[in-house]
Design goal:
The protein contains 13 helices and 14 strands. It has about 425 residues and is α/β, with parallel strands linked by helices.
Length: about 425
C-alpha cells in the first residue's frame, strides 16, 4: 500500500530542542530522544469504512507535530502506520451500503490520503494494510503459540492476557473498568469457552460470506490488535520510541498490542512511550459514526475551505485536550490566516529571531501547539502594529517566519 505524496520541509537554521512528551503509562512527561538511529514512531491508522472526520484529523495533525519536532531537533524519523482494511466495521458498512468491501476500503483509504496531503501531514515511511500484513500476523501467532499463550475456542485463536505480567500497566485501568468497556470496543467478553473475558482474538476462522485467507490455523483473518503488533514489531522492533493514537485506543487496543508483543519478545517493552490525542466533539458528543455527528475533512475541502485553516483550527487546541468543534473555530482560523498572510506579504517585519525558538520550544514541550500559535500571533501583532507602532525592522522576517510555519507547524502560507 502506498502512502500519500511527501512534501518538502524547509530546513531551519536553528535546531529545536529535544522533545518531551506526556507518557500515558506513567502519567509523566519524558524525553523521547531516540537512543540510536532514527526516532521510531507508530501511529495507529484508520479502518476505512467512512471518510476522514475532524477527530481523525486532530490525531494525525497532532502527531505530525511530533514528527516535525524530531526532525527539527536533527533526528531522522521512521514513521509506521497501518490501515485496518479488513475488519467487522468495514464489512458491516459495505453490506449496509451495498458496496464490495474491497472497493469501499480502497476508496476511503485514497480519500484519507488526499485529506492528509491537503493538511500537509507527513506520510509514513511504512504504510501497511491488514491484508498485506497477514504473513506477519501468522508468524507472530506462531511465536505466541510457542509461549503457551494461545488457545482455541471452536476454530478461533485467542491470546491469554494474563500471559503478560505487565498487562494493565499501560492504561492503569482496573479490571472492572476494562470489563465495562471491552464489549463496546471490539471485544467479546461473554463468549463461552474463553479462559478470561478480556482475552482477545488473534485469528478469526472463516465465517460464511466473509473474506478469509489460508493459514496454518485454517482459513480466516487477523484479529484487530495483532495486526498492529505484528506490523510494529516487523518494522520498528521492540522498545520503539512512541506508540500513538487517539485516547480511545488506550484500552483495549494499545494495552492488547503491548501485551502480545511483550509475551512474544520477553524482557522488552513494546514501546518506550505511549502518547494519546484527545477526542473532538460536535453537538455535545464525541464525533462518531454511531451518533451521526461527523464533520468530514473532505466535505470542508469540497466547499472551498482552505485546508490550512482546518489545520490551524486544530492547532489551536493541545493534542491531548478534549474539545468541541464549532463553525466559529473554522471562521476564526480563516480570519487569522488572512491576517498572517498580510503580515508575511510585507517582507520586512518585527525581529524573527525571538519567535523561532519560542515556537520550537513550545512544540518540544509536549507538542504545545497553542503556545506556538500564540508566539506567531505576537510576531504578527508587532509587525502590523496592533499594540503600538508597526515594527518592520527585520528585512528578512517574513521569509524566516514563513519557513518556520511550514517546518514546525505544517502551515504552508
Amino acid at each position: 500500500m502506498r502512502a500519500w505524496t511527501p512534501v518538502a520541509i524547509p530546513r531551519l537554521e536553528v535546531s529545536g530542542p529535544e522533545v518531551r512528551l506526556h507518557d500515558t503509562a506513567t502519567g509523566e512527561r519524558r524525553e523521547v530522544t531516540p537512543e540510536s538511529g532514527p526516532a521510531r514512531l507508530y501511529v495507529c491508522g484508520i479502518t476505512p469504512y467512512d471518510a476522514t472526520h475532524l477527530g481523525h484529523a486532530a490525531t494525525y495533525v497532532g502527531f505530525d507535530l511530533l514528527n516535525r519536532a524530531w526532525r527539527n531537533a536533527g533526528h531522522a524519523v521512521t514513521y509506521v502506520q497501518n490501515v485496518t482494511d479488513v475488519d467487522d466495521p468495514l464489512l458491516e458498512r459495505a453490506t449496509e451500503v451495498g458496496v464490495d468491501w474491497q472497493e469501499l476500503a480502497q476508496r476511503e483509504t485514497e480519500l484519507f490520503g488526499q485529506d492528509m496531503a491537503a493538511l500537509r501531514v507527513l506520510p509514513p515511511e511504512v504504510y501497511l494494510g491488514a491484508v498485506e500484513s497477514i504473513p506477519l500476523v501468522i508468524e507472530l501467532v506462531r511465536r505466541l503459540e510457542e509461549t503457551g499463550s494461545v488457545y482455541r475456542v471452536d476454530d478461533d485463536l485467542y491470546f491469554s492476557v494474563t500471559a503478560d505480567p505487565a498487562f494493565g500497566e499501560l492504561s492503569g485501568w482496573t479490571r472492572d473498568q476494562m470489563l465495562a468497556v471491552v464489549g463496546d470496543r471490539g471485544g467479546d467478553p461473554d463468549r463461552p469457552g474463553k479462559k478470561d473475558p478480556l482475552d482477545c482474538v488473534l485469528w478469526r476462522a472463516e465465517r460464511p460470506g466473509e473474506p478469509a485467507w489460508d493459514s496454518p490455523y485454517g482459513r480466516g483473518r487477523p484479529g484487530w490488535h495483532v495486526e498492529c503488533t505484528a506490523i510494529a514489531l516487523e518494522h520498528l522492533g521492540t522498545a520503539f520510541d512512541v506508540q500513538a493514537g487517539g485516547s480511545d485506543l488506550v484500552f483495549p487496543h494499545h494495552e492488547m498490542c503491548a501485551a502480545e508483543a511483550q509475551v512474544a519478545v520477553p524482557g522488552q517493552p513494546f514501546a518506550r512511550t505511549y502518547a494519546h490525542a484527545g477526542m473532538v466533539g460536535f453537538d455535545g458528543e464525541k464525533m462518531s459514526k454511531s451518533r451521526g455527528n461527523l464533520v468530514f475533512v473532505s466535505a470542508l475541502r469540497n466547499s472551498d475551505v482552505d485546508p490550512m485553516a482546518i489545520r490551524l483550527a486544530l492547532l489551536r487546541h493541545h493534542y491531548r485536550a478534549d474539545w468541541e468543534w464549532t463553525d466559529d473555530e473554522l471562521l476564526g482560523a480563516v480570519d487569522t490566516l488572512a491576517e498572517w498572510r498580510g503580515a508575511l506579504s510585507l517582507g520586512a517585519g518585527a525581529p524573527a529571531a525571538p519567535v523561532v525558538p519560542a515556537v520550537l520550544d513550545a512544540l518540544a514541550d509536549d507538542l504545545d501547539a497553542p503556545r506556538a500559535v500564540a508566539a506567531v500571533q505576537a510576531w504578527v501583532d508587532a509587525t502590523l502594529g496592533h499594540d503600538g507602532p508597526a515594527d518592520t525592522s527585520d528585512p528578512h522576517a517574513a521569509a524566516t517566519v514563513h519557513q518556520l510555519l511550514d517546518a514546525a507547524l505544517g502551515l504552508a502560507l
